[in-house]
Amino acid sequence: MKARIHITLKNGVLDPQGRAIASALHALGFNSVGDVRQGKYIEVDLAETDKGKAKAAVEQMCNRLLANTVIENYAIELVD
Amino acid sequence: MKSAIVVFPGSNREGDAKAALKQATGKDPIMVWHRDTALPKVDLVLVPGGFSYGDYLRCGAIAANSPVLREVKARAEGGMAVIGICNGFQIITEAGLLPGVLLRNANLKFVCRNVGLRVETSGSRFTAGYKKGQVLSIPVAHHDGNYFADPRTLDELEAEDRIAFRYCGPEGRLDSVYNPNGSIRHIAGILNKKRNVLGLMPHPENAIEPLHGSTDGKALFTSMVEAVS
């Protein structure tokens, strides 16, 4: 099983990298671009067949290491 | 006073921290490698600056979960003094010893220069050698020093007199022009509830000799020694 994890900044947390990306897109002429928020994508291979157990384990991974929940949200997707 | 410095792959200010602790205590601190699980019995642990584990994932996140840090955390909860400088501040914050988080500098630039630093409290073993309101000149050198916490945490820090230092102008005035990284409420350093843990972005260990251009960092190290003896 594989876990696909998206980590994004919470609303209200300043994202200077996102802002820099937005201004670079504007410089390229993409004038329709408004706000840009950037984040992380992590893939984890799991030796686990039970979806419930896998989800619980990945949630723990996110809370303990992969995300800093003071500033970040995470979303988990499990694929076979 | 017995002290130790925790060293990670990618730490780079451990030598400067060692010199500062030696100057203040007269003894070499014990250098502890990140894989060590046994921490010697000491009065103070210093977590130095640098780029531990290449700043992978988030600054300080990997180091915060290393075996030695678990031990540091347990001892800190038991009252031992811990100081985290720069990357060390990021590490002990990620480890949960201090609230909040250090984000990428608001202007996205690596800042390396002396900044004005206002002492916000002398009520700690780290800052007892300074006067409240005193303005220091201490260098910063970081890319991720933009302190952030939710308003409730910030109000709590202020109400409990746990903000140790703020970025300021030469006369102690707070203004965004004097804030090198966009840090919320101009915060440069904070204390934990028990006041035995300090994290700060500036480098007091690089302001201890006239040749450094400032000796304002010296009192921080001598205060810690006096608190123990």
TrEMBL record, chain A:
- Name the enzyme's class: ligase
- Enumerate the catalysed reactions: N(2)-formyl-N(1)-(5-phospho-beta-D-ribosyl)glycinamide + L-glutamine + ATP + H2O = 2-formamido-N(1)-(5-O-phospho-beta-D-ribosyl)acetamidine + L-glutamate + ADP + phosphate + H(+)
Cite the InterPro entries for this sequence: PurS, PurS-like_sf
Classification via Pfam families = PurS
Q: Where is this protein chiefly located?
A: cytoplasm
GO CC, sorted alphabetically, is: cytoplasm
Q: Indicate where this protein resides in the cell.
A: Cytoplasm
On whether Nucleus is a keyword of this UniProt record, the answer is: no
In terms of superkingdom, the source organism counts as: Bacteria
UniProt keywords (A-Z) are: ATP-binding, Cytoplasm, Ligase, Nucleotide-binding, Purine biosynthesis
This entry's Enzyme Commission designation comes to: 6.3.5.3
Question: What Gene3D superfamilies does the annotation carry?
Answer: Phosphoribosylformylglycinamidine synthase subunit PurS
GO MF term list:
ATP binding; phosphoribosylformylglycinamidine synthase activity
Q: Does the keyword Coiled coil apply?
A: no
Q: Which SUPFAM superfamilies match?
A: PurS-like
* Pathway assigned to this chain's UniProt record: Purine metabolism; IMP biosynthesis via de novo pathway; 5-amino-1-(5-phospho-D-ribosyl)imidazole from N(2)-formyl-N(1)-(5-phospho-D-ribosyl)glycinamide: step 1/2
GO BP terms: 'de novo' IMP biosynthetic process
Q: What does this protein do?
A: Part of the phosphoribosylformylglycinamidine synthase complex involved in the purines biosynthetic pathway. Catalyzes the ATP-dependent conversion of formylglycinamide ribonucleotide (FGAR) and glutamine to yield formylglycinamidine ribonucleotide (FGAM) and glutamate. The FGAM synthase complex is composed of three subunits. PurQ produces an ammonia molecule by converting glutamine to glutamate. PurL transfers the ammonia molecule to FGAR to form FGAM in an ATP-dependent manner.
Family indicated by similarity: Belongs to the PurS family.
Query: Which proteins does it associate with, and in what oligomeric form?
Result: Part of the FGAM synthase complex composed of 1 PurL, 1 PurQ and 2 PurS subunits.
What protein does this entry describe? Phosphoribosylformylglycinamidine synthase subunit PurS
From TrEMBL, chain B:
Molecular functions (GO terms): ATP binding; glutaminase activity; phosphoribosylformylglycinamidine synthase activity
Pathway entry? Purine metabolism; IMP biosynthesis via de novo pathway; 5-amino-1-(5-phospho-D-ribosyl)imidazole from N(2)-formyl-N(1)-(5-phospho-D-ribosyl)glycinamide: step 1/2
Q: Which UniProt keywords apply?
A: ATP-binding, Cytoplasm, Glutamine amidotransferase, Hydrolase, Ligase, Nucleotide-binding, Purine biosynthesis
The GO biological-process annotations, alphabetized, read as: 'de novo' IMP biosynthetic process
**InterPro entries per the UniProt record, alphabetical:** Class_I_gatase-like (IPR029062), PRibForGlyAmidine_synth_PurQ (IPR010075)
The source's domain of life comes to Bacteria
One GO location term (cellular component): cytoplasm
Q: Which reaction does it catalyse?
A: N(2)-formyl-N(1)-(5-phospho-beta-D-ribosyl)glycinamide + L-glutamine + ATP + H2O = 2-formamido-N(1)-(5-O-phospho-beta-D-ribosyl)acetamidine + L-glutamate + ADP + phosphate + H(+); L-glutamine + H2O = L-glutamate + NH4(+)
> What CDD domains would the database entry show?
GATase1_FGAR_AT
| Principal cellular location given in the protein's record | cytoplasm
Localization per Swiss-Prot or TrEMBL: Cytoplasm
Residues that span the membrane, as ranges = none
Active site per UniProt: 86 (nucleophile), 203, 205
Subunit annotation: Part of the FGAM synthase complex composed of 1 PurL, 1 PurQ and 2 PurS subunits.
Q: What does this protein do?
A: Part of the phosphoribosylformylglycinamidine synthase complex involved in the purines biosynthetic pathway. Catalyzes the ATP-dependent conversion of formylglycinamide ribonucleotide (FGAR) and glutamine to yield formylglycinamidine ribonucleotide (FGAM) and glutamate. The FGAM synthase complex is composed of three subunits. PurQ produces an ammonia molecule by converting glutamine to glutamate. PurL transfers the ammonia molecule to FGAR to form FGAM in an ATP-dependent manner.
Q: What is this protein called?
A: Phosphoribosylformylglycinamidine synthase subunit PurQ
From what organism does this protein derive?
Dongia mobilis
